[in-house]
Write a structure and sequence with these properties.
heterodimer, A: 112 residues, mainly beta, seven-stranded mixed β-sheet, four-stranded antiparallel β-sheet, B: 110 residues, 0% helix
């Protein structure tokens, strides 16, 4: 079966702009989580959605937001981009949160 | 807030078994041990998890000590494609997030 799909794979944005990243989970998976990975901070949890509701949120500013649609697809948005937002953004899906999470290939965001 | 301790790096010869240790001395009774790996610039890949019994799947074996304070991930016949960062994570099954530490960088050499 198809894995987790993230689009786009690469993105270059300018400081101050906003960006939307997309994640399509494995069919049947209802939980989608987002992570940010940077060389300095490693992998950090952003938030988790289940059945269109955000259930858990990491320690990130309000510029980072997300949503989940009725088909379980999820988007995350970052507004007013800063240079420090340059990172690999990873999406993971699981059946209902917890358990085994399956990650996508990530979106590499570069802010210039 | 990772609850595990892993060596920073280790080397392994191709074709040999790779034994990756992980200490989790503060593990609670309802916390599982999960292993993920991340090959360069890819998303983390689930390997295996266990509670207190040893587990084996097509990728690896997980050996958990009787007191559950440490575990070992075994890659039985390491290949060059097993070169990756390996993360040991303890979590309650219902916990929505994975707390990644720095992991162990494993380099498999020909």
């Amino acid at each position: 079966k198809a894995g987790v799909t993230q689009t786009p794979r690469y993105l270059i944005k300018t400081r101050g702009q906003q960006v939307t990243l997309s994640c399509s989970p494995i069919s049947g998976h209802r939980s989608v989580s987002w992570y940010q990975q940077t060389p300095g901070q490693g992998l950090q949890f952003l938030f988790e959605y289940f059945s269109e509701t955000q259930r858990n949120k990491g320690n990130f500013p309000g510029r980072f937001s997300g949503r989940q649609f009725s088909n379980s697809r999820s988007e995350m948005n970052v507004s007013t981009l800063e240079l420090g937002d340059s990172a690999l953004y990873l999406c993971a899906s699981s059946l209902r949160g917890g358990y085994e999470a399956f990650f996508g290939q990530g979106t590499r965001l570069t802010v210039v | 807030d990772a609850k595990t301790t892993q060596p920073t790096s280790m080397d392994c010869a191709e074709g040999r078994a790779a034994n990756l240790p992980c200490n989790h001395s503060t593990i609670s009774g309802n916390e599982y041990v999960y292993w993920y790996r991340q090959i360069h610039s890819q998303g983390p890949q689930y390997i295996i998890h266990g509670l207190k019994n040893n587990e084996t799947n097509e990728m690896a074996s997980l050996i958990i000590t009787e007191d559950r304070k440490s575990s070992t991930l075994i890659l039985p016949h390491a290949t060059l494609r097993d070169t990756a960062v390996y993360y040991c994570i303890v979590r309650v099954v219902s916990d929505y997030k994975l707390s990644f530490g720095a992991g162990t960088t494993v380099t498999v050499r020909a």
